[in-house]
Design goal:
Distance between the termini: 54 Å
Organism: Paenibacillus urinalis
GO cellular component, one term: plasma membrane
Family: Belongs to the binding-protein-dependent transport system permease family.
Strand content: under 5%
Helix content: over 70%
Pfam family, one: BPD_transp_1
Radius of gyration: 26 Å
Order of helices and strands: HHHHHHHHHHHHH
Largest sheet: none
Subcellular location: Cell membrane
C-alpha cells in the first residue's frame, strides 16, 4: 500500500508539473505575441523611413524597400534643421523635467511632512488644476507671455510644461511620501540636521524610485508636446522636433521618407531612456501601489 501511495503521489506531482510547464509555455506565447504587436509600429516606421514616395504608396506597408534610403536620415539631420530641433527638444525636456520633479518633491514634502495652515487648500488647488483642459489656456497664456516678452522664447515652454505637469507629479509622489517612515527624519532632527539638509540628503534618496517614475512620465509628455510649441514658438531657432517635422510637408509635395526618418529620430531618445529606467519605474509604481 505504501508503494502504491508513493506511485500515486509521484504521478500527481508529475501531472501537475506538466500542467505548470504547459501554462508557462502558453503564457510566454501570449507575451511574445503582445510584444510583437507592440513592436509592429516601430518596425513599420523604420521601413517607412527607408522608402521614397513611390515605394511608400506602391509597396505593402511591411515590404522591404528596394534600395534603402539611409540618406533620408542624413538629409533631415543636415539640411532639414533637425539637429537644432533635436537639441532644443533635449534641453527643454530635461530642464522642464528636472524643475518639475524638484518642485513637486518640495511641495509634496511640505504638504505631507510639515504642519501649516492652508496645506489642504494648496493640495486641493493642485488637484483641481488637473481638471483644466490644456486648450482652454492657450489664449490666456499667449496673452500673458506676449505682455512679458516671452513669446517665441523657450522659457514659455518650460514654464508651461512645469505648470501642467506639477499636479500629476504631486499626485504620484503623495502616496509614497505618506508612507515614508518618520523615525528616520526624527533621528536626523535629533542629530541636529536642518530641514533643507534632511530633504536633500535623506528624503530625496529614499524616494529615488518614485522620482524615476515621475521623471519618465514628465519626459514623455514634454518630448511629445506639440500645442504649446506650435502656439508660442515661431522662429526655427527655438522649435522642437514635434513641430520641425512640418518642414517636410509642402504645399504641393511631401517628403514622406524624410518625415519617417524625423519621427524615428524623435522616438529613439524616449526608448533609450525607458530601457535604462524601466526597472526603477516598475519599482516606483509597485512601491507606490503597496505603500499608498
Amino acid at each position: 500500500m505504501m508503494h502504491t501511495s508513493a506511485q500515486i503521489g509521484g504521478t500527481v506531482k508529475s501531472g501537475s508539473s506538466i500542467l505548470r510547464k504547459i501554462g508557462y509555455a502558453l503564457l510566454y506565447i501570449i507575451l511574445i505575441g503582445v510584444a510583437a504587436f507592440q513592436l509592429f509600429p516601430l518596425l513599420w516606421l523604420l521601413l517607412f523611413s527607408l522608402k521614397n514616395n513611390q515605394e511608400v504608396f506602391n509597396l505593402p506597408p511591411l515590404s522591404l524597400p528596394q534600395n534603402p534610403k539611409w540618406e533620408n536620415y542624413a538629409k533631415v539631420w543636415n539640411s532639414g534643421n533637425i539637429d537644432v530641433y533635436f537639441f532644443n527638444s533635449v534641453w527643454i525636456t530635461v530642464a522642464a523635467t528636472v524643475i518639475t520633479v524638484v518642485l513637486g518633491s518640495l511641495v509634496t514634502f511640505a504638504i505631507t511632512r510639515m504642519k501649516w495652515k492652508g496645506s489642504s487648500l494648496v493640495l486641493g488647488l493642485f488637484m483641481v488644476a488637473m481638471m483644466i483642459p490644456v486648450h482652454s489656456t492657450l489664449i490666456p497664456l499667449f496673452s500673458m507671455f506676449n505682455k512679458v516678452g516671452l513669446t517665441d522664447h523657450p522659457l514659455s515652454l518650460v514654464l508651461s510644461y512645469v505648470a501642467f505637469n506639477m499636479p500629476i507629479t504631486i499626485m504620484i509622489l503623495l502616496g509614497f511620501y505618506y508612507a515614508l517612515p518618520k523615525e528616520v527624519e526624527e533621528a536626523a532632527i535629533i542629530d541636529g540636521c536642518s530641514v533643507n539638509r534632511m530633504f536633500f540628503r535623506i528624503v530625496l534618496p529614499m524616494t529615488s524610485s518614485v522620482i524615476a517614475t515621475t521623471g519618465i512620465i514628465n519626459m514623455i509628455y514634454n518630448w511629445n508636446e506639440f500645442i504649446f510649441v506650435n502656439t508660442f514658438i515661431s522662429s526655427d531657432h527655438y522649435k522642437t522636433l514635434t513641430v520641425g517635422v512640418q518642414n517636410f510637408i509642402g504645399q504641393y509635395t511631401t517628403d514622406w521618407g524624410a518625415i519617417g526618418a524625423t519621427l524615428m529620430i524623435s522616438i529613439l531618445p524616449i526608448l533609450v531612456a525607458y530601457m535604462f529606467l524601466s526597472d526603477r519605474i516598475v519599482e516606483g509604481m509597485a512601491a507606490g501601489a503597496v505603500k499608498g
